[in-house]
Amino acid sequence: MTSSVSIIFPVFNNWELTRTCLESIKKLNYAKKKVEIIVVDNHSLDNTANLVKKNFPHVKLIRLKNNLGFARAVNIGAESSLADFLFITNNDVTFDSGFLNNLINFARSDPKIGVCGGKVVTFKNGKKYPDGAANISRLTSRIIRLDNYQKTQGVDYIAGTGILVKKKIFKLLEGFDESFPFYFEDLDFCLRVKSLGLRVVYFPKALMYHRQSSTASKMPSGWLNDVWYEGKARIVAKHFPYWSKPLALFFQLLFCLYVFFTKRQNRFDSVFKALKKTLAHKTRGPQLAKRRQLTQKQILKYYGQGKVFTARNSAPFQQVILKDFYQLLTTNYPTKRWHIMEFGVGHGWNLPLMVKYFGRITAVDIAPLAILESKEFGFKHVSFKLLTKNKLPFKDASFDLIVTTEVLEHVPDLTKTVEELKRITKTGSYILVSVPVYWNLRGLSKKLMEARLGTGTWEPARSHPGGFERFLTPPKIMEYFKDFKIIKTCGADYGTAWSPPAIPVYPKSWAPFFEVTLGKIPLVKYFGMNFYFLAKKT
């Protein structure tokens, strides 16, 4: 089925660019009835809004009484959208005829994709070069262009020139952060999408063209420097780990020094203005430091309103480890006849592997949006249940296997949750558990910092405002299952466990050894980032 999409872009003056963009949209080979065009006029001082209404009557035109900026204009446009997807862009772009069809088909191909964007051919000073996506260094805060713009790949962000996102994800994250003055609202949004556990992906087979900085080129250079550094400072404050924030500032000052001596430009004023504004700025939303005060009822309310969306572990190594456990069971039992439950299905990323080994699966979660995401896989023998109470809505001894990965550290009453899981497990059947543990550098650092500065202060972009992240150890979590027989244990992800955040300590080719193989070694298995065990009810 063809998905509906709203193409949203703000305009401020410049009718010719707007007309060219709208003409290009008309030529897209996507089902016309599924495309909604929303133009948000940021109080143009020329006749742009009237000309849009006259020449393109099918366009939904929203007139603003003041110029509210790009982020606010996009959010207003998104509020009026009736579509499944939002495509956010500018008026200084044109498209290849197959652009939208290619991009939306790609977005639908994988439920893990939160944001995607195509290849942008940018024209500047008579030259053209590929653009559309980039990464950001967590050490220096430098924006890093891709090495290869011909390759589909995960990135830190898609440029606001062309962002495709599901409307429900945009709504869940409350849209763009309007505190960003001119730049970086796209980077901020994509990093927030990634903090949900979703992917941000660059897809070069969808092609569009951009006349770079047609708006920015008309702005004073001093003002552009001010808003650039203010935006970057807010990115660092909002998304960088605490240990890297002073390093990012240090390298930024070094860069300003370099520019001062090589180009005779003074950017120090802009940097210090940005720091002053950022320090005075209060972040919207629930404060992570107050997370300890949340009650269980409040947590359920957060999830029920879709304000919190805890993503389960989607790392490739987890599927390798789960496969080992599943094969162990399949070797000894007719698992295709089993009825199993995944407790905390999240985005449903464990389901594709589960359906290969087990006959009937019940997937449960307390987040309505998690259930909706998981249903998109369309598996016939998987049913879904939304949990709203403490007691699981199943009879005693209902399941042959319960799988719960990266969930038990979040539940407010761990003892009661474990007892409920035991109750619905058949005698002679199994529970498979994984949790993050803290006998490692990362875990101990987190524990020490949060003990002094408050819950959620370690890697805030990865924290869950509605969860209680316990400091578990392998013996402590297994103690909850002392009346079960432990069949198999293993550890995982030693690179993350023993390195500072965002600093890789080994080449990607070594990942299988550091993420999986080390976890099979006795004693060493207890010191990874994650701990897994299979327990049998006797």
Summarize the structure in words.
The chain has 538 residues and is α/β, with parallel strands linked by helices. The protein folds into three domains: 5-215, Spore Coat Polysaccharide Biosynthesis Protein SpsA, Chain A (Alpha-Beta Complex); 221-280; 316-437 and 467-492 and 529-537, Rossmann fold, CATH 3.40.50. It has 18 helices and 20 strands. It has helices spanning 15-26, 48-55, 69-79, 99-108, 167-172, 185-195, 221-239, 245-263, 268-280, 296-304, 316-332, 351-357, 368-375, 414-423, 441-453, 474-479, 494-497, 511-515, and strands at 5-11, 35-41, 60-63, 85-89, 93-95, 113-124, 127-131, 133-136, 143-145, 153-154, 157-158, 162-166, 199-211, 339-343, 360-365, 382-386, 399-405, 425-436, 484-492, 530-537. Strands 1, 2, 3, 4, 5, 6, 7, 10, 12 and 13 form a ten-stranded mixed β-sheet that branches. Strands 16-15-14-17-18-20-19 form a seven-stranded mixed β-sheet. A three-stranded antiparallel β-sheet has the order 9-8-11. Helix 1 links the parallel strand 1 and strand 2. The two termini are 48 Å apart. Mean pLDDT is 81; it is low at 283-313 and 460-468. Keywords: Glycosyltransferase, Transferase. This is Glycosyltransferase 2-like domain-containing protein.
